[in-house]
Amino acid sequence: MKIFKSIANAIAKILDKLIVTPLTKLIVKITGNKNTNGKLFESLLAKPTALLFISLFFSVALFIAVDQKIIRFTDNGAEVFKGQTVNVIYNEEAYVVEGLPETVDVTLIGSKADLYIAKQSSNHSVTVDLTGLEPGTHKVNIEYEKGRNDIEYSVNPSVATVIIYEKVSDSRTLTYDVLNEEKLDKKYVIDSVNLKTDTVTIRGPQYRLDEVAAVKALIDVSDLPNVEVGKQTIENVKLKAYDKSGNVVDVEFVPETISADVEISAPSKEVNLNFVPTASMPFGKAISSYNFSANKVMVYGANSVINSINGIDIKVDVSKLTSDTTLDVDIPKPTGVKSMSQNSIKVKIFVTDVATKSNIQSVNITGINTPEGMVAQPIDEANGVIEVEVKGAQSVIDSVQASDITAYVDLKGLSEGQHELNVEVKGSNPLATYVAKKTKVTINLTKAG
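Below the sequence we write its predicted structure tokens.
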């Protein structure tokens, strides 16, 4: 509105200066010199039709003066249009163009009225015409297609050095990467991905095609139509080309996208929970029995992982247990397992006084981690067996036999000859404590055969 008021004031001043004031002086002069003519002129001005024709005459005259730049306004200005997209005209099927800026700044110079109109327009076309140019390096002008001839302009930058490459094609093997797999429900596993095509064509300048080390389909699990067991098809899978360092290479793909079938499963296995007390019970105390709120748990993960799991040890610190106790214990998640049916259980432990069962004899000593190509033997019969003392609740140790106990020595890293080694013992019942009466034995290592 301020612009229009300014224009109206300017026009009023011009009319007053060029028309009203001179006309008034002329009338005064005429009427002053010729009284008769003055009366005649006054009667003429008194007629509405005469005034109408005079106004029309001066309006047309003013329009012609402004349109033909006879009268100029002095309120010129400039307007900057930043980030104007550069449109490139060339044969996109045959060539690749590098070096052109994606956007430029255009400055328009003219009257405020013209600039206001230009600012309201959404048509600010910036083009570079490469038609007819051959592959190679060229300097080209960046042109602004102005809509009004009375506006001057400048483009920044106005010149660009472009390189035109011939577009070539090559066929490449297609592999895939799975994205956002962690967003799947923990019990689900992607068993396989079947791409609808195993080769694609890449297009671009030869130097870019030479950089491509791998072409991959990006399987995004966020695009799955349904997350459930079975085959799911993802449409419009994006393709990416990478160089040997893993950086993206800008090339075209034919086809631009592909589809892929994704096989989803939920492998699971039920495994036992094993009670494993840690540390030692307080002096004079032993565990007579225990109860788990759940004896088994369902584990989910890849088949290769869960098939190797035979049980999960529930480790409980029993060093402060002096009476019957119920504990909340976390179930440790084995490596590779994605999810479990539950993550904790309650363990009720029954505590009683300790008892001892001595002199369980003739527990054979075995060797573990025997070096390849070697044979381990005790140097005599006395070094081949030991006696074991068993401690625990009376109800526990009463059933312990020699066959329930394993005594062993670790031969890892030993060379040929005789070695005095520590004896370790363990039993099948974790509620009992096993102590070897003899802590060291001598073993002879010889080469096999």
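The chain has a mean pLDDT of 84.
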